[in-house]
Write a structure and sequence with these properties.
This protein has 2 domains: 193 residues, 2-Layer Sandwich (Ribosomal Protein S5, domain 2), CATH 3.30.230.10; 124 residues, Alpha-Beta Plaits (2-Layer Sandwich). It has 10 helices and 14 strands. It binds adenosine-5'-triphosphate (ATP). Adenosine-5'-triphosphate (ATP) binds next to α1 and α2.
Length: 336
């Protein structure tokens, strides 16, 4: 933890990477409404940054006794599609951590709605936790931006509030916030089953180079799963070829093995995505795949310069293209 000039109290900064699915198999719909998945997650070098700080009477918020009441504020630069209130996943994560760590009366203060303080909280006596979120992960792009922010909030506030919960506990708290959150807490490369929350770390050698292609219009994850229910059948395709390619540091084999069962569903909703995928392969990519529930498309190249060449060739088709690498570690606390 460090004390920043300009901030009134201690603050902690966390950088958290996006996730991609190198393999996503949908085994069917479960009685609880979730889908049964087999997926290989990996982190990618596009990052959100979350800075959390305490403002208030000196020492408040760090001592467990003073943590009983806390006001919470959120700032972000993600635009209108990123929620600014209680429904932001970072705020939900703060609440979950607060409950687990014994912070009671965590009052969210919605500045935009001009609710400066909630009536049952004395602003003079109650410390503020301020969350400052900078988005670098495309929103609603199938790259788990919201889940990454939830993971960042768990990791950062665990430090700021001196909760001393270990990563396994943070991971279990994350599972209640969203299926991708446990992986985002851990990062690296993992095989996940169930609704995506049962994780086993996977050996990955080397670095892989990607072109990340985003489109203007987002795709809702729920809508893509509904399209899968309507148009697709469960199958038993296995991730073995992906796992072997990762072990062998074999980009060519990985390109051939990339697989996402949600692709046909997303392509029904956005037929142009199938054409974009074909264009990525024509431009020389080793493989291309829809990222999670899309609409982001990922293309794998043999090198960073190869990825840049593919990016140039397809740039006019997309709202934005960027080059990134994987794996990209997990949430990192800024040293200072
Ligand atoms: P999912 O995790 O549902 O697959 P995604 O990876 O496609 O989603 P996200 O960037 O997580 O995309 O955004 C999905 C939705 O989550 C957004 O449309 C937004 O309404 C909501 N959301 C909640 N909190 C956040 C956040 N911190 N950042 C981005 N979106 C958020």
């Amino acid at each position: 933890m460090r004390h920043d000039a300009g901030a009134e109290g201690p603050c902690v900064a966390v950088r958290v990477p996006a996730k991609i699915n190198l393999f996503l198999g949908v085994r069917g719909r479960r009685p609880d409404g979730y889908h049964e998945l087999v997926t290989v997650f990996q982190t990618l070098s596009l990052y959100d940054r979350l800075r959390v700080g305490l403002i208030g009477p000196p020492g408040q918020g760090q001592h467990p006794a003073a943590r009983r009441r806390m006001r919470l504020r959120l700032w972000h630069d993600g635009g209108a599609t990123v929620p600014s209130a209680e429904d932001n996943l970072a705020v939900q994560a703060a609440r979950a951590l607060g409950d687990a760590a014994g912070v009671i009366d965590l009052a969210f203060v919605d500045e935009r709605a001009a609710r400066r303080a909630l009536p049952d909280v004395d602003p003079a006596a109650t410390p503020y936790t301020v969350l400052d979120l900078r988005k670098g992960i495309p929103v609603a792009g199938g790259m788990a931006g919201g889940s990454a922010d939830a993971a960042a909030a768990l990791v950062a506030l665990n430090e700021l509030w001196s909760c001393r919960l270990d990563r396994d506990t943070l991971r279990s708290l994350g599972a209640d916030l969203g299926s991708d959150v446990p992986f985002c807490v851990v990062g690296g490369t993992a095989l996940a089953t169930g609704r995506g929350t049962a994780l086993a770390q996977v050996l990955c050698r080397g670095t892989f180079h990607w072109v990340v292609c985003t489109t203007e219009q987002p795709l809702s994850t729920a809508e893509v799963y509904r399209a899968w229910d309507a148009h697709c059948d469960a199958n038993e395709v296995q991730p073995d070829a992906v796992l072997q390619a990762l072990r062998n540091e074999d980009a060519e084999a990985l390109g051939a093995a990339l697989h996402n069962d949600l692709e046909p569903a997303a392509f029904v909703l956005r037929p142009e995505l199938a054409e974009h995928k074909a264009a990525l392969l024509d431009a020389g990519a080793l493989g291309a795949v829809l990222s999670g529930s899309g609409p982001t498309l990922l293309a794998l190249s043999e090198s960073e310069s190869g990825a840049a060449a593919v990016a140039d060739a397809v740039a006019s088709r997309f709202a934005a293209v960027s080059v990134a690498h994987s794996p990209a570690g997990g949430p990192e606390l800024a040293k200072g």
